[in-house]
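Exercise 7. Given the components listed, write out the predicted structure of the assembled complex. Treat all entries as one system.
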Amino acid sequence: MATLTDSRKRELRRELETVVSPGAVLSDPDELLVYESDGLTLFRALADFVVFPTSAEQVAAIVKLANRESLPFVARGAGTGLSGGCLPAEGGIVISLMRMNRILEIDYDNLLAVVEPGLVNLHLSWAVGPRGYYYAPDPSSQQACTIGGNIANNSGGPHTLKYGVTVNHILGLEVVMPDGEIVWLGGKTRESQGYDLTGVFVGSEGTFGIATKAIVRILRKPQAVKTVLAVFERIEQASGAVSAIIARGLVPAAVEMIDHLTIQAVEDAFGCGYPRDAAAALLVELDGLTVGMEAQAERISEACRDNGAREVRTARDEAERQLLWKGRKSAFGAYGRISPAYMVMDGVIPRTKLPYVLGRVNEIVATHGLRVGNVFHAGDGNLHPNILYDPRTPGEEARVVAAGAEIMKLCAAVGGSISGEHGIGLEKTDFMPFIFSATDLTFMQRLKSAFNPTGRCNPGKVFPTRKSCGEAGPVAYRPHPIEEKGLAQRF
Amino acid sequence: MEAALLDKLRAIVGPANVLTGVDLSPYVVEGRTPEAAVFPGSVEEARSVVEVAGAAGMPIVPWGGGTAASVGTPARRAGLVVGLARLARLIEHEPGDLTVTVEAGMTVAALQSALRARGQWLSLDPADPERATIGGVIAANASGPRRHLYGTARDLLIGVTVVTGEGAIVRGGGKVVKNVAGYDVPKLFAGSYGTLGILVEVTLKLRPAPDAERLVSVGFDRLKDAGAAARAVTASDLIPNALDLLDAEAGRALGLAAAPALVVGFDGLLEQVEWQCAELTRLTAPLGGHRIETLSPDTWSRLVTAARSAFDAPAALMKLAVLPAAVAETMEQGANAARQRGLGTAWSGHAGIGVLYAALASPPESPEPGPIATVLGEWRALARAGGGHAVLEAAPLAVKAHVPVWDDPGAAERIMQRIKAQLDPLNILNPGRFVAGI
Ligand SMILES: Cc1cc2nc3c(=O)[nH]c(=O)nc-3n(C[C@H](O)[C@H](O)[C@H](O)COP(=O)(O)OP(=O)(O)OC[C@H]3O[C@@H](n4cnc5c(N)ncnc54)[C@H](O)[C@@H]3O)c2cc1C
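Answer.
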């Protein structure tokens, strides 16, 4: 890790200020504190500088300066990441893209938009909404997270089931490479030749370079939407219904599951109309043509009833539909009311393994003397167990981390993955060997070297670094700055 | 090939699975005969073959069904064909998971029929499914008309097992439909033309088979109007699974009642298909659409090759990527460029995606490559002017000598070359065949 003397730091600050502008460089420890964490508050790392460029050329100049000084650098979007991906693990320069948030072009004829990476996900849908279009990837954090962060993490959302994840919606990227060169990967056409550089850049967690422009697809809003709520007495019934829906030839836009504990938290907080005594509920959304919508909803209802649903109903109107979704999307916030802290796990399993795995997850967490709430993308098999705990109770956080590792092992053991959308970041580097061999990891390391030969671009991420997990445990919980400012509710 | 190397290969896969001499005729590409062809029966055998070949500095040509074998820059040395024909098993299909894991040598048709028996399908419909293998289709990024709605290999491929040029077995991605652990290695292999590794096993996302499906064509007097109709469909509530534009020549080759034509596919519940067909008629009529006909299901697989089938032995085939809204215009300009040089031409394309297939007829008397090369250069310039690119998918060697197969990838070239150097450091896999001299 590079350590800078105070005087060197002052010189570099001045130099960075000439690249951007005097108001666009932070180096006071107090100011840097805001950028020491992301949405996963377990990990913290302080940068030497946080810089706010407004153009690709400025980003390139910062990157070249960092290289000259042998300083690591990392891109940061809104900092909503949940794996510590944007942390300056080894110090250096945090390059915030938040001032590069313009929509540069919208081309309705070709169903695409050219945007800057700091654009907030939802703002794109707002911009194209009046003409009847939207941007499909819809992470639950879409009011805050940026397109650049989505690209780096290949983010998904509830509607990923039908519409795919971020990578399916990115056509081209302007990238500042780790050596400072500005390069276009892909472009406006749907096909580009050679290796799919856009495809591999997406999901590379900020380790392949910094995206400074993105060409994204926009979609026409569906003619009709229908949301079905199915209520179950037992969680295995809900799990069974998920596979049954798929097996009956339907691909809904979304299939989300919410368990008992989460329903109670959500009802306490917002009163969204989920039955409090239910063991689990499925929120199933269909979209597409008006014609046939009823028939499809009927098939969904049947699949749920055949699997023991005690109640199946469709949202009567847009207001009820929004309320049901509010319950789903605000679940994270609701946990805050029933527990001092919680940690979100993110794993994926084959859908058919849901009944077994959910049972095991609950057992694992109980063994550690903790409680868990599950709210997740069931249609994709993307689990989000949320382990509730009290950071002030000594040893409790360590138990959460231990339970989390066991859940990841479980996902791996049933043929799944250790992350469906939050990424590896700093959090899961040591879990990578659960699903990848040393040879697989070497192959990926070499791929990284093709983009980032010096490793200065976002070091310490994705690959196992420490000898074994548990050795260097995470630091104790402290509230995240956005929670302290009362902003946490925006999620 | 040296006898010692042949002996080693025979020891790995068994003598019956090593071909030499006249037996190599099916593997001759553009007049080049490979030095041998070897057919491993397991992933481990494939690994050993590559290791042995690599140690001998013998270039390797991964071979699926051979349907795209001649796509690419002609190789300097024909090398060793490593055929996947014996790696053709379906490994795992769990309908409730909507995923399938197969060995890469299975043909598309065989996979589809196994899936169909269980009510599902792989939403990828390349030409020649009886011969094309899954691995080959992925490596060549082959697709068909349904890509309009369902995308291409990159959108469906979730896991790969590959044998690298150094003889390592590497897995990337996984078996679950959503996965961001590590880099998206499968993406790298979609469209890599066998230059980074031999795909031996792949896991793909599936879709439930629709209740009903229909392909209809709408005729127009002018291509321009058909293009306008395509744009109107894109801007409407319709959700077609295919939206192809065919000029008069390609339409005639396909046997359409009227052409130029817009050929549109719909799937879903029967009532959805019927409503959409009616809506299509309503939408296209004011734009000059007429002679709407329902096409027979076997038309689907002939759509991608409609342009090339307009001529017995086309002189060249080019694939152009342009912006969707520019499809009809590019077709018209491209066809004019050919006619001005007295050459026949036929065009078809995916109007919603912006991918065009153009065929150029052989000049009646002179086998001179000059005019052909000129037209191809103009076609490429057309694609580039619109921010796209063009790949020369097939042409005689004399033409390839004048017109590069691949387009200029710009500044990204350097990254591609570095990827190749990192992942195939011996430069043993299809050397020189791909973009940027890779
Ligand atoms: C309440 C809540 C709900 C969430 N729900 C979801 C969900 O449903 N689905 C989901 O997928 N995620 C979800 N997330 C996680 C998070 O929102 C996503 O990972 C998001 O994409 C991060 O975006 P960001 O702008 O905050 O990126 P940051 O957290 O700032 O950065 C994330 C990563 O992106 C890199 N990066 C940022 N910008 C660039 C760029 N321009 N070029 C290259 N790399 C860059 C960073 O280096 C880092 O590695 C949720 C998070 C919260 C807090």
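Discussion: Chain B has a mean pLDDT of 96. Chain B is about 30% helix and 20% strand.
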